[in-house]
């Protein structure tokens, strides 16, 4: 448990471990990345707009492109390889490269904290992950952004929407985690 | 020269995304255990990263906008959408163990349940697209305050809000670190 939360004082030792960086340094890095994207491409960091465009692409495989184009939401966010979609691909590749470079890439079906509470069943973990992903994305679209697009990119501009989103997600996230992990 | 548009921006999108994904992995927020333990208030890595990113990013972007090098990119505070969406998002995040950005990044590090949850995110986005017309006439039509900042809402100048937020972050992190040092 004690090495889960690394204090700044222990940072040099922590950084020597593969694939770890002081969280304040990582936060500052994301902050500096925000400066760069605001100046260079005028497009703040965000994930879910691109993800819903990809969903339109997936849906068109099932119901055909005409049905997707007729949908009023996808008419506003058509599937294409635009900036946001390529940023999302880059995010995946960056984490892949980082985990390979630090030799911490490994296949994980059931994480330790989940296993401790709910056991090692892969179907159960997969089912809840699928459901949770679906609820999170529906909520992110309703809120017009996720942790990145609303929480960080709107939050750093002190936009009301960003701070209301952060408050709402942490309140319900903490409450849900409490319900899931409380000792019955 | 800036902002870049068209092909130049498209070429940089995966580069910026790559940096974001790399940072998420190095900060360990591609781990289910780290995110869920934040929601259980046992590991504050997520808050350390997010709050640092918001303060560093926000102060920098404020001065870049002031210098005429960047422009604000504010989103509307559609309160019905962001409150309901944020609450749903927190539930989904606690079940999935990721937000969309960290989920797509975690896929890259080999987390199979993160990939299954990404499938759930696509399903959630499809459900949202089909619910959009109904939501547009109800939740999204209730209470839209427009593109407002905390400065607009409170009447406190932006720079004073940034200073207050930075001071709060430093005090909060100092308290957190001394508490974690005692716990070891």
- Form type of chain A: globular
Biggest sheet statistics of chain A: none
Structural class computed from helices and strand pairing of chain B: mainly alpha
| Elements of chain B, N to C (H/E) | HHHHHHHHH
Q: What is the topological layout?
A:
The complex is a heterodimer of chains A (184) and B (184).
Chain A: H1 11-16, H2 23-40, H3 48-63, H4 65-70, H5 72-76, H6 83-101, H7 112-118, H8 122-142, H9 147-152, H10 160-181
Helix pairs in contact in A: 3-6
Chain B: H1 6-26, H2 32-39, H3 45-66, H4 79-96, H5 100-108, H6 112-137, H7 139-142, H8 150-154, H9 158-183
Structure description:
- The complex is a heterodimer of chains A (184) and B (184).
- Chain A has 184 residues and is mostly helical.
- Chain A has a domain at 21-106.
- Chain A has 10 helices and no strands.
- Chain A is globular and about 45 Å long.
- Chain A starts with 10 loop residues before the first helix and ends with a helix.
- With 184 residues, chain B is mainly alpha-helical.
- In chain B, 76% of the residues lie in helices and 0% in strands.
- Chain B has 9 helices and no strands.
- Chain B starts with 5 loop residues before the first helix and ends with a helix.
- Chains A and B meet through helix 2, helix 3, helix 5, helix 6 and helix 7 of A and helix 1, helix 2, helix 3, helix 4 and helix 5 of B.
Key phrases:
heterodimer, A: 184 residues, 10 helices, globular, B: 184 residues, mainly alpha
Write a compact overview of the structure shown.
Chain A has 184 residues and is an all-alpha fold. Chain A contains ten helices and no strands.
């Amino acid at each position: 448990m004690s090495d889960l939360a690394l204090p700044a004082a222990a940072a040099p030792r922590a950084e020597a471990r593969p694939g770890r960086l002081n969280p304040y340094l990582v936060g500052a890095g994301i902050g500096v990345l925000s400066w760069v994207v605001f100046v260079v491409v005028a497009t703040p960091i965000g994930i879910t707009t691109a993800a819903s465009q990809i969903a339109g692409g997936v849906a068109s495989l099932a119901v055909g492109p005409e049905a997707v184009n007729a949908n009023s939401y996808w008419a506003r966010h058509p599937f294409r390889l635009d900036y946001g979609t390529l940023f999302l691909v880059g995010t995946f590749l960056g984490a892949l490269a980082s985990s390979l470079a630090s030799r911490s890439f490994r296949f994980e079906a059931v994480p330790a904290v989940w296993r401790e509470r709910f056991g090692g069943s892969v179907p159960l973990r997969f089912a809840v992950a699928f459901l949770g992903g679906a609820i999170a994305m529906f909520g992110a679209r309703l809120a017009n952004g996720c942790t990145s697009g609303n929480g960080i990119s709107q939050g750093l501009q002190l936009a009301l929407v960003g701070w209301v989103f952060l408050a709402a997600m942490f309140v319900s996230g903490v409450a849900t985690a409490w319900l899931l992990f409380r000792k019955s | 020269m800036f902002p870049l548009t068209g092909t130049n921006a498209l070429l940089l999108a995966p580069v910026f995304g790559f940096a974001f994904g790399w940072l998420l992995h190095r900060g360990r927020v591609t781990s289910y255990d780290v995110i869920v333990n934040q929601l259980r208030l046992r590991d504050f890595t997520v808050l350390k990263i997010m709050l640092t990113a918001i303060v560093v990013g926000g102060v920098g972007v404020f001065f870049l906008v002031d210098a005429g090098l960047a422009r604000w990119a504010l989103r509307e505070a559609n309160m019905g959408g962001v409150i309901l969406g944020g609450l749903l998002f927190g539930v989904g995040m606690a079940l999935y163990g990721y937000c969309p950005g960290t989920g797509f990044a975690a896929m890259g590090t080999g987390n199979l349940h993160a990939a299954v949850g990404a499938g759930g995110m696509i399903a959630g986005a499809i459900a949202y697209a089909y619910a959009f017309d109904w939501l547009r006439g109800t939740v999204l039509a209730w209470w839209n305050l427009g593109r407002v900042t905390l400065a607009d809402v409170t009447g406190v100048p932006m720079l004073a809000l940034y200073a207050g937020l930075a001071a709060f972050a430093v005090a909060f992190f100092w308290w957190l670190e001394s508490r974690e040092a005692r716990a070891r």
